[in-house]
Amino acid sequence: AAFTQLFITEQQPGIWLITLNRPKALNALNRQVLEQLHSAIVWIENQPDARVLLITGSGDKAFAAGADIAEMKDMNAQQAREFSQVGMTTMHRIESSRLPVIALVNGFCLGGGCELAMSCDFILAADNALFGQPEVTLGVPPGFGGSQRLPRRVGPGMAAQLLLTGEKVNAEQALNIGLCNQVYPAQQLQERGIDMAITIAKNAPQALYHCKRLVQASADQSIENGCRMESDLFGLSFATEDQTEGMTAFTERRKAQFTGA
Ligand code: CO8
Known about the structure:
Elements: E1 6-12, E2 15-20, H1 31-45, E3 52-57, E4 62-64, H2 69-72, H3 77-95, E5 101-105, E6 108-110, H4 112-119, E7 122-126, E8 130-132, H5 146-154, H6 156-165, E9 169-170, H7 171-176, E10 182-184, H8 189-201, H9 205-220, H10 223-237, H11 241-251
Parallel strand pairs: 2-3, 3-5, 4-6, 5-7, 6-8, 7-10
Antiparallel strand pairs: 1-2, 8-9
Helix pairs in contact: 1-3, 3-4, 4-5, 5-6, 9-10
């Protein structure tokens, strides 16, 4: 496939980076970008050695400044609902990826951009990051899952404040409310993100996937159901070679070499 709106690079063995590439439009998410992003994730997952996925924006101004307003402006209700579904599908595909996915947020991360970042497992931010859900200033609510993912990240009260004011928060404020996990100098963001991805990639792939699913389940299920799911996945992991390798390596006082089997 030709990815005209994205760069896809393997930064380190198994560590893949998708860079949104519409810097002149501050990486605004139009239909083509959303569809290519979806295809790119599937393509990367099909690389057997892929371990971690990073998503960032090209240029030094933006991760993504939202869904493409020019493309949306004249849509009717039916078309808008359909466009929303395209975005929703891509966001859900990221969330349910077999790979850990980290958003590296450089600059503006607004509307659909923030919704994209929140579909990732977690967010690392540059010190110039600006987050927000300014949809209400355009006369609409969020359309790519922001009303559901933001409260899960920052709690309902803070989510309501951000959604109702439409105001932006800077990297430090985003850190304080738990929207991003770390803030780095902009020039270091990519390198630090890759370092964290390398740390993650050393761990057992199936265990990582179980953790990811369990964290997501915690938002939607009773603690009883979530803990039952944890027991099930814990049990399942004892049927993997990586469990044997991980625990054997510990007793042999060496580093485990996980294969994903
Ligand atoms: N869509 C399309 N183009 C955009 C967008 C966008 N979201 N954001 C920026 N651009 C374009 C500008 O039009 C401009 O293009 P040009 O040079 O051709 O005029 C270029 O990017 C640079 O932008 P600015 O000149 O405005 O740069 P500034 O540094 O002056 O300002 C801002 C940067 C503050 C980020 C400003 O561009 C801005 O406010 N952008 C819009 C932010 C926003 O409101 N985002 C939310 C969009 S709504 C949304 O995401 C809903 C998601 C769900 C959709 C549901 C489907 C129906």
